[in-house]
Amino acid sequence: MENEPSPLDTLRQLKEWLDAGTITPQEFETLKRKLLFSENAGPPASTPPPAPEKPAVTAADQMYPSRSAATPAPEPPRPPEAEQTFTTSGPVEDPMLPPIVPPVTTGRAEASAVPPVSPAPEFLPPQETVRARTPDPQHDEVYPAAGTLEDDTLPVPNDAASRNPLTTVLIVGGIVALLAIVAYLMLGNKESERLTSTTITAADTLSTRPETGPQAEQIDLPPAAAPETIRVAPVIPTAPATADTIGQAATPALAPATTAPAEEAVTTPDAATDADAQTRIQGVLNAFYEDMQAPPFSASTYLAPQVERFYLMQNTTPAAIAEEMGKSYFPEFLEAQNQIEPGSLKISPPVNDGSRVATYIEKIQSLRQSMQKHQQTRAQVRARFDKNFKIIYLRRERLLENTFNE
């Protein structure tokens, strides 16, 4: 046939399968030997197929024909098919592959290479038909008949039981009793004997003092006097007293008149003193902010020996403040320009201990080392000065502005 593949194509196909891993080298060698042997060996002699044997008929098949299948009719013998012969040429050797040499085998090995194939039987043995098994009938105890199922519906109530007069009387009586109780509680005008008793006597109207147990003696303390602010006035030398008895007698009478102006001076604020205090406080603050622009910072010049608060530090000393400023403030805030916004300074009158409170707006411009940006802030500050005009309290109460520029 023209479309049959040549042995060379078959060998190449086997080589491709071997390279792809589809077959193993042992299978490749076996198939290659078969391909070479089929070329060298001639077409074998055709042998007629054996005649099919007719199955023997047993006595059971004659007695029980219904249990055995019908014997199929023998088929007519088929003509032997002529084996196809192929005319092939020698394989073309690939220059990239080793030369193909047919293996040297003996005749016994060639005979055992192709095992004989037994012909397939042309008929199948008879098979017995299997009768379908019918289920056994079930008893009525297992599956009761449809008419014998119990009725699970509720029975119809008897009219005689529902119309029992005793039940009706009990229901009506309970409803009437409930309504009577509700009406009694809502409409009853029975007065309370404890509150509006008509048997009150004159003894019941006497007011008696409640009895009390033994108590400690109450001590009446005098009212505490309010603290007064005393201002010490400079001592003015007085004129020498005369020996006149009239002047000596008049001196006690004039004493109350001389003390009155002194008390009036205590209550009236001195305008000159307030102006001087404001000037001194403003000078202290200007020097304080100017000293904060560059190290070193002399904290003891502006701060009291014991400081209640200094920005975020509490209950500290000037030495600790100077150390903290040199460690954290000056390395971070460079090129600082600190000042008080003009017209924002306000000073309160002095209190009992002579301290004053000052409020103002501070403006700070500096270069932040960690951010490499210029920072400008405005904040509301409250400061308290002692009688020696030393700072004992300094805190930013509110941040008004905080901007950064390149």
Automatic annotation (TrEMBL):
Residue ranges the record marks as coiled coil: 357-384
Compositionally biased region (Basic and acidic residues): 130-139
TM region(s), chain numbering: 166-187
Segments of skewed composition (Low complexity): 54-72
Keywords: Coiled coil, Membrane, Transmembrane, Transmembrane helix
Residue ranges, annotated region (Disordered): 34-97, 110-139
Name of the protein described by the UniProt record: SHOCT domain-containing protein
Organism: Hymenobacter taeanensis
